[in-house]
Design brief:
This protein is of the alpha/beta class. It has two domains: about 60 residues, no CATH class; about 170 residues, 3-Layer(aba) Sandwich (Rossmann fold), CATH 3.40.50.300. Helices cover about 50% and strands about 10% of the residues. It is elongated and about 75 Å long. The N and C termini lie far apart (about 75 Å).
Length: about 260
């Protein structure tokens, strides 16, 4: 194949918006010559380069839109640290059947037990599988929904969230309350029920949610809907990574006898 023809093929590939094929054309031609690839194998190498590049860009977009916290994946999760964690159960969740089935997942545990890491890691797995995912801290999500009341765009915001495949709501606990928060969250839960998989992490018991939101009646409705068909990870008795993990502060010298 002459260089003129190669350049013409590259130009036409770019015109067809197949720039990845254009960029790897020289390498594919060289590989085909060295390994004596057949025509179909050569075409496959070209198409594969375009497909893999598009897949990577799509994944990068999903990861960016998901807004995950710092690097939290199962690759850097310490499976042996938490004695109360049902490792087999969590690893089974990595199949993402709960996402496909639009099931909620509740992760219960005191502060520092790894709830956020598990939730985010499942979100990363879902992004890699092609699902649309978004991660919110509860306070941020409620503030976003509350702000929509000013221009009456709440329904639009909830409709957008209900088009996700997986919505992660992290850290239900004692928050800065507004009277509208409980009803806004209930509206979102109702819109997502049986349509969007929800992963909820909480550092307080379910009995304390009413006090956290300031409305027991609405909160009971929220809990009832979340528990419908829900999967549950309970690590409430677990150890804290912050105080007992490998990066926890160590007492030394004259501080050895300090009571904590």
């Amino acid at each position: 194949m002459t260089q003129i023809l190669v350049d013409k093929v590259k130009e036409q590939l770019r015109a067809l918006r197949l720039k990845d094929m254009a960029e790897c054309l020289d390498k594919v031609i060289e590989k085909a010559q060295q390994e004596k690839l057949g025509h179909l194998e050569t075409i496959y190498e070209l198409v594969r380069s375009q497909f893999e590049a598009m897949q990577k860009r799509s994944l990068d977009r999903r990861m960016s839109l998901a807004n995950f916290p710092r690097d939290m994946t199962f690759d850097n999760f310490d499976w042996g640290f938490q004695p109360g964690l049902n490792v087999e159960y969590v690893k089974n969740l990595k199949t993402l059947n709960f996402v496909s089935n639009h099931q909620p997942l509740l992760i219960l545990g005191k502060t520092g037990t790894g709830k956020t890491h598990i939730a985010a890691a499942l979100g990363v797995e879902a992004c890699m599988a092609g699902f649309r995912v978004t991660f919110y801290k509860l306070q941020e999500l409620l503030a976003l929904l509350y702000a929509t009341l000013a221009d009456d765009s709440t329904d639009d915001a909830i409709a957008k969230l209900s088009r996700l495949d997986l919505l992660i709501i992290d850290h239900i606990g004692f928050i800065r309350k507004k009277d509208e928060y409980a009803s806004l969250l209930l509206d979102l839960i109702c819109a997502c029920q049986d349509r969007v998989s929800l992963v909820i992490t909480t550092s307080i018991s379910l009995e304390e949610w009413g006090a956290a939101f300031g409305n027991n009646a609405i909160t009971n409705d929220i809990v009832d809907r979340l528990f419908h068909r829900a999967a549950v990870i309970n690590i409430r008795p677990g150890r804290s990574y912050r105080t007992e993990g490998p990066n926890a502060p160590k007492l030394g010298g004259n501080n050895d006898n300090i009571d904590v």
